């Protein structure tokens, strides 16, 4: 049982009895390969008003343990241990009894708000249903309460929106509606399973805010499950770090973040790129999590741990507070860490060397050749209506005049929320179009005047790595054939191909004899390495990276990012790095361009944009990114944007950001009129830093 | 696409290969030293499937029966033995005789010759046609899609039986291969529609986009990425089409189109024997048994191919299970080709 000492001022209800207690929970699933031990002894308790964060990578058992609490595991799962809700053991209750508890005493918020709401009923009907199942309310009273709830979670105009259907809500609004349902019956515990993972950062900030507010209203305890260490830092009181189905370290947020004592936690904290500094390589944790089918004896982390000793392989350490450590850690060497004369936690992982800058990178930017020039690129899609006679009723301005430039040996980060036109821009560049509007030149060649053969030849120089490492590799082809494909296409001889494939595999850190395996046999990080190898096969000049690490776990992500940096320096590549994760962009990009609704609103050198963001949107975006640093996180003030990204089919007049702009609301009438009438163009603020705002002014937000 | 990879083909099947050949030449990845291409990996995985090997063996035996059997039998399919009407199987007539004294063994062999070729050819042509038409319609969209779907819908509403009936006097005396073409032409449409919709979902997948941005030509993308990813459907469909074609042919022959007396096909022999299934059982059971064996062999091979092409299939991996390892060792001893098999499943 995890008991942390009450911290003055931070644990509001330390004296009260825990509302939810989980004791020695085990969950196993039968599978073809044997029993999968998904959860192996999880214990925790939460008190009213407390937030417990459970962090872990995919497959660590964090979601399964919460599903067990909710009684939502499949029949085939076998669950052992004890789950007490307000002192009553609820493990082993029948579905009928659990149904009475779910929704009334335990509220749930799931990751995907689209699939968690029934599309054929209005939001109001679904909240009313949640209320009427558990409470004896009249239809009118329930509806009134539903409107109140929607108001609490910050849905504008709840009287009207209560009759809207889920598809009419944006992702963030749906998640708010889910929270409204979760708190509808004043639950004692709210279990939130990755509630913001599917959302953009600005929306994530809004939703976390709402969740906090919901907790204040209901006084419930929250169990927050996430893989994002930043979210937990600012939101949770206590943290439990899980690995291979077991908690490995637990304590208050400050204890775990500032004095981690389990090598896994140390590695995890070291492997995340951070928004508040850009120096140094990331420290990846080597290897992959163990299979949960036949765990070897000993510490499950031993194979990846830099300080493994023989004893680690013999006994699995239990979660106890070692001598001189103020919180429980499951590591037999935990007591050595951080002690005088002992191991220094920051130094146990070998720091990878930063690659030497290539010859192009050392040249001043102005002297390097441009690899990609995009000038005033426009991509509009017609909006059609009617079944027989299609007529044009509008225009979707997906990309509405974008200019960028990438020089040799440079990484340009293109950031923005989903729907801002990042992907369209990237596909336009990859299509080497003949043109709607604007020009694209690759290596000085204008793509509009290319012949077919030249176009194909140009493809050699521009390659792409997609987001989802599973979907971007043909599952039916062995890795060797996947890598051979670009080479065959561009007419390499068999001998050269045969020589090139082992070379490529080694380049990305895989073994040459992996060529005969199928993509399924690799982990996510390895698959992404294969994608990178394929992109590099033809020795391109420019690689377009479309969210290359967003599908990977943090410890794996660090390795891939380091590889990308290393390859860039060794091969003299240029990257167009499209991402929504600003921390990753800060870490990898030399220059960054921020997109909003089909336009670039701020562009410049990375450190200038991140340290002195000048466009109100950039400021809001940066302030919304959570930092994995509890102190900083508590002190930061978020700039919360109101509402959602407008539809690109209905772009506001003048400045397209004005209806969400926090600055616009504070302007006097004359200045505000300028925002309404004039579309701001990018104008230079400093050397290589420009913003598209009439009233641009730098503001420190990180 | 999967069809070109039909391994271990005997000479008799040569015409069948020719259908798939134009595609297969591009699909076959060059096998470089140190890396086995997809074709060799697939073959190796196929060889690991015992039932599939049984299927191949069975098919070989059936072909032998069809072409070598008549050489051993002293009766020809046209001969009538006026001393033996409706005789049960004996040393003289191995499968017995029918009411006019024809030797059933000779007839079955002759029928098998026709039906095996018709069945396999129609199965291959139908699946290849459906794959090409469906994938093109789905991948290109636009007017290509509209034209192909128009043809599909047109053929679907046309009464195929009637048209074959009307056309058959025109081809009277011509080679019976025309018949294969006719049968194939009227049975690819539904499969093509299914393939089209599957292509539409596949073409937006990232690996297809990746290939496109690598500069891979469109027809190569279809052959290399789109079709292999629906191999399961194609193989199952081909398997069914083989049996359907054999049965369908007998239906037409029964009405006097297609294979005409005195020539026989398996279908006509079965059709003639159906009425005697309970009384003079050998008239029905021997030819029907052959048909069942053909179907079984094709199904086994199809299953094996599907597993060999699907990297997720557990059966095709060299798992270090005890029984499997023993079997693998035995097989490795039998053929040196499989000895490198552990490369794949070592994880």
What does this structure look like?
The complex is a heterodimer of chains A (702) and B (347). Chain A is of the alpha/beta class and 702 residues long. Chain A has a domain at 363-461 and 538-691: 3-Layer(aba) Sandwich (Rossmann fold). In chain A, the strands form 4 sheets. Chain A has an 8-stranded mixed beta sheet, with helices on both faces. Chain A has a 6-stranded mixed beta sheet with strand order 6-7-8-3-9-10, with helices on both faces. In chain A, a hairpin with a 2-residue loop joins strand 4 (78-85) and strand 5 (88-89). Chain B is mainly α and 347 residues long. Chain B folds into 2 domains: 37-68 and 107-310, MetI-like fold, CATH 1.10.3720.10; 317-347, no CATH class. Chain B is 65% helix and 0% strand. Chain B is built from 15 helices and no strands. In chain B, helix 2 crosses helix 13, helix 4 (104-140) runs parallel beside helix 8 (189-202) and helix 11 (231-254) crosses helix 12. Chain B starts with 13 loop residues before the first helix and ends with a helix. Chains A and B meet through strand 16, helix 15 and helix 16 of A and helix 9 and helix 10 of B.
- Dominant shape of chain A: globular
As a percent range, the share of strand residues of chain A is 15-25%
The helix/strand class of chain A is: alpha/beta
Coarse structural class of chain B = mainly alpha
Distance between the termini of chain B: 28 Å
Instruction: Give the helix tally of chain B.
Output: 15
The helix/strand order of chain B is HHHHHHHHHHHHHHH
**What would CATH call the architecture of the domain at 363-461 and 538-691 in chain A?**
3-Layer(aba) Sandwich
């Amino acid at each position: 049982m995890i008991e942390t000492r009450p911290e003055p001022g931070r644990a509001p209800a330390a004296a009260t009895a825990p509302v939810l207690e989980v004791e020695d929970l085990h969950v196993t699933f039968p599978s073809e390969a044997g029993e999968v031990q998904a959860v192996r002894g999880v214990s925790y308790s939460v008190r009213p008003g407390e937030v417990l964060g459970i962090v872990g990578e995919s497959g660590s058992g964090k979601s399964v343990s919460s599903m067990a609490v909710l009684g939502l595991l499949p029949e085939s799962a076998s669950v052992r241990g004890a789950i007490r809700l307000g002192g009553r053991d609820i493990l082993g209750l029948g579905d009928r009894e659990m149904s009475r508890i779910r929704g009334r005493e335990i509220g749930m918020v799931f990751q995907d708000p689209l699939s968690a709401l029934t599309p054929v009923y209005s939001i109001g009907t679904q909240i009313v249903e949640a209320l009427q199942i558990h409470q004896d309310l009249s239809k009118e009273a329930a509806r009134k309460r539903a409107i109140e709830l929607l108001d609490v979670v910050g849905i504008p105009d709840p009287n009207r929106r209560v009759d809207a259907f889920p598809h009419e809500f944006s992702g963030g609004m749906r998640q708010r509606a889910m929270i409204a349902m979760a708190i509808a019956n004043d639950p004692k515990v709210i279990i939130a399973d990755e509630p913001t993972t599917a959302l953009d950062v600005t929306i994530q900030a809004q939703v976390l805010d709402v969740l906090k507010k919901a907790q204040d209203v209901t006084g419930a305890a929250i169990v927050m499950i996430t893989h994002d260490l930043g979210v937990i830092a600012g939101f949770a009181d206590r943290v439990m770090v899980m690995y291979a189905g077991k908690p490995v370290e637990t304590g208050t947020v400050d204890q775990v973040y500032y004095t981690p004592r389990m090598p896994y936690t140390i590695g995890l904290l070291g492997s995340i790129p951070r928004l508040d500094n850009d120096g140094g390589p990331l420290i990846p944790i080597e290897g992959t999590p163990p299979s949960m089918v036949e765990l070897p004896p000993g510490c499950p982390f031993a194979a990846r741990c830099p300080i493994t000793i023989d004893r680690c392989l013999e006994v699995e350490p239990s979660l106890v507070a070692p001598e001189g450590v103020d919180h429980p850690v499951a590591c037999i060497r935990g007591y050595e860490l951080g002690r005088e004369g002992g191991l220094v936690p920051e130094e146990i992982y070998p720091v990878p060397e930063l690659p030497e800058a290539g010859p192009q990178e050392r040249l001043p930017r102005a002297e390097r050749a441009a690899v990609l020039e995009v000038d005033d690129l426009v991509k509009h899609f017609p909006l059609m209506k009617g079944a027989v006679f299609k007529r044009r009723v509008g225009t979707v301005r997906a990309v509405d005049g974008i200019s960028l430039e990438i020089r040799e040996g440079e990484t340009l980060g293109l950031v923005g929320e989903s729907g801002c036109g990042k992907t369209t821009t990237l596909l336009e560049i990859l299509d080497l179009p003949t043109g709607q509007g604007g020009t694209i030149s690759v290596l000085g060649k204008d793509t509009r005047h290319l012949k077919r053969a030249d176009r194909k030849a140009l493809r050699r120089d521009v390659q792409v790595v997609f987001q989802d490492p599973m979907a971007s590799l043909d599952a039916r082809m062995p890795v060797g054939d996947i890598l051979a494909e670009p080479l065959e296409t561009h007419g390499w001889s068999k001998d050269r191909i045969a020589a090139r494939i082992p070379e490529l595999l080694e380049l990305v850190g895989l073994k040459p004899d992996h060529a005969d395996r199928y993509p399924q046999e690799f982990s996510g990080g390895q698959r992404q390495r294969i994608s990178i190898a394929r992109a590099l096969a033809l020795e391109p000049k420019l690689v377009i990276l479309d969210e290359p690490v967003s599908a990977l776990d943090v410890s794996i992500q660090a390795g891939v990012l380091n590889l990308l940096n290393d390859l860039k320096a060794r091969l003299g590549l240029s990257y167009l790095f499209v991402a929504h994760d600003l921390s990753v962009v800060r870490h990898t990009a030399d220059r960054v361009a921020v997109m909003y609704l089909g336009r670039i609103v701020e562009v410049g050198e990375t450190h200038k944009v991140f340290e002195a963001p000048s466009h109100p949107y950039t400021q809001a975006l940066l302030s919304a990114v959570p930092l994995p640093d509890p102190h900083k996180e508590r002190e930061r003030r978020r700039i919360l944007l109101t509402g959602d990204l407008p539809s690109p089919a209905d772009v506001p007049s003048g400045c397209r950001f004005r209806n969400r702009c926090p600055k616009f609301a504070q302007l006097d009438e004359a200045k505000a009129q300028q925002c309404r009438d004039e579309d701001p163009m990018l104008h230079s603020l400093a050397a290589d830093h420009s913003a598209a705002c009439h009233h641009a002014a730098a503001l420190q937000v990180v | 696409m999967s069809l070109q990879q039909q391994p271990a083909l005997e000479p008799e099947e040569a015409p069948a290969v020719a259908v798939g050949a134009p595609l297969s030449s591009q699909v076959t990845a060059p096998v470089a030293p140190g890396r086995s291409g997809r074709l060799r990996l697939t073959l190796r995985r196929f060889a690991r499937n015992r039932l599939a090997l049984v299927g191949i063996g069975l098919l070989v035996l059936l072909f032998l029966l069809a072409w070598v059997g008549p050489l051993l039998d002293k009766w020809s399919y046209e001969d009538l033995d006026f001393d033996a009407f409706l005789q049960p199987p004996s040393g003289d007539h191995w499968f017995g005789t029918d009411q006019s004294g024809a030797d059933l063994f000779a007839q079955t062999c002759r029928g098998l010759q026709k039906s095996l070729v018709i069945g396999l050819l129609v199965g291959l042509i139908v699946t290849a046609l459906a794959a090409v038409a469906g994938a093109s319609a789905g991948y290109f969209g636009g007017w290509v899609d509209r034209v192909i779907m128009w043809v599909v819908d047109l053929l679907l509403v046309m009464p195929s039986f009637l048209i074959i009936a009307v056309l058959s006097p025109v081809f009277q005396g011509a080679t019976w291969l025309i018949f294969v073409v006719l049968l194939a032409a009227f049975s690819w449409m539904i499969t093509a529609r299914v393939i089209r919709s599957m292509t539409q979902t596949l073409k937006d997948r990232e690996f297809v986009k990746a290939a496109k941005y690598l500069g891979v030509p469109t027809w190569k993308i279809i052959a290399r990425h789109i079709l292999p990813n629906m191999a399961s459907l194609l193989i199952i469909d081909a398997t069914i089409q083989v049996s359907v074609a054999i049965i369908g042919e007998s239906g037409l022959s029964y009405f006097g189109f297609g294979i005409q007396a005195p020539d026989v096909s398996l279908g006509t022999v079965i059709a003639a024997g159906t009425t005697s299934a309970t009384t003079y059982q050998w008239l029905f059971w021997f030819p029907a048994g052959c048909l069942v064996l053909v179907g079984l062999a094709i199904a086994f091979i199809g299953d094996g191919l599907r597993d060999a092409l699907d990297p997720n299939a557990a059966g095709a991996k060299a798992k270090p299970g005890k029984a499997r390892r023993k079997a693998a060792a035995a097989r490795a001893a039998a053929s040196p080709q499989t000895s490198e098999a552990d490369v794949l499943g070592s994880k």
